[in-house]
Design a protein that fits this description.
8 helices, alpha/beta, 311 residues, UDP-N-acetylmuramoyl-L-alanine:D-glutamate ligase, four-stranded mixed beta sheet, 31% helix
Length: 311
């Protein structure tokens, strides 16, 4: 079972020719409202990419008493994600303004709303066990994240932390994570706050070595790299013409979580997750762009396997 404890948003997507500069107003013909939020995106991506019919995905989150909530809940149920642990807040459903240019690059501003009062008590105790992979991001209260990490590890669950958006993590908790996933900027932030003088993928390597964890760093069009204290792997990126990169990182995290659930080797996990992330760039939106298991299988051969690197 994959349990995603995290954010749920409605994304208002604006397609523009070029991203606005500071103080600039940019016009576009219209906008689309689609489901989003890093937690929701990762839950939808995991459910759609799963190859094992016995695998289930559950979402734990909060929505508000407004018109955006049904949009988000429908996206989850349509993908086959369980929603019984989603509760209603007095605050509005999270909402993001997503601006995407012709090259697929984006700017995002998020009003967190109901995500800010997600409580750890909402996560059912019987969902935590050795068969569970718990997936976390940084768009909900950090104290709630850290509380569910302690509960999950006490019951033998595996934990994936996506360090996005970048915020500090208590040093004593870092060894609790089975996977820490970040981009280069996020990896450098975590390394710096923990007194490590390293940047980019070297920051990921340093974190893996100091804390005994598996650290995976996404490198955009350069692919991704994974480090443990004993091994290092690099995988390229799928050759694509991106339409919208908004959900790529979340799709990548979902691919890693599925590999961890299945007990896949680290290089195979990295390879498949890289394909999942690449395919998520071929359609507009975040949750609506997540690829199916069949689409992923059809493109696995288009990306060379991950290759080992020297430590």
């Amino acid at each position: 079972m994959i349990v995603v404890f995290g954010s749920i948003n409605a994304d208002l997507v604006f397609a523009v020719d070029a991203l606005p500069r500071a103080g600039e107003t940019v016009l576009c013909p219209g906008h689309r409202a689609v489901a989003g939020g890093k937690g929701l995106n990762q839950a939808v991506a995991a459910a759609k990419a799963a190859t094992d019919p016995a695998s289930s995905v559950q979402m734990v989150g909060r929505v508000g008493p407004d018109g955006f909530a049904p949009l988000a809940l429908r996206a989850l149920t349509d993908a086959g994600v369980g929603t019984e642990a989603i509760t209603e807040s007095a605050l509005p459903t999270g909402c993001a303004a997503v601006i995407v240019d012709r090259a697929g690059e984006n700017q995002i501003t998020v009003a967190s709303g109901a995500n800010t009062d997600l409580s750890p008590e909402v996560l059912p105790e019987d969902w935590l066990g050795p068969e569970t992979v718990l997936v976390l991001q940084m768009e909900v209260p950090l104290e709630s994240n850290w509380a569910v990490v302690e509960r999950a590890k006490a019951r033998g669950a595996r934990v994936v932390l996506n360090l996005a958006p970048a915020k500090p993590v208590p040093a004593e908790l870092i060894p609790s994570f089975d996977l820490v996933v970040f981009n280069e900027i996020e990896a450098e932030m975590l390394a710096r706050t923990r007194g490590l003088d390293a940047a980019g993928e070297d920051a990921a390597r340093a974190i893996a070595t100091r804390y005994g964890v598996t650290a995976v760093v996404s490198l955009g069009s350069a692919g991704a790299a994974a480090f443990t204290p004993d091994e290092a792997w690099r995988c390229g990126a799928l050759a694509i013409e991106p339409v919208d990169t908004v959900g790529a990182g979340d799709a990548f995290v979902a691919g890693l979580a599925l590999g961890l659930e299945a007990g896949t080797t680290l290089p195979a996990m990295l390879h498949r997750a890289s394909v999942v992330g690449g395919l998520a760039c071929l359609r507009e939106g975040a949750a609506p762009a997540m690829p199916s298991a069949a689409e992923i299988e059809a493109r696995l051969g288009d990306l060379p396997p991950a290759r080992p690197m020297e430590l």
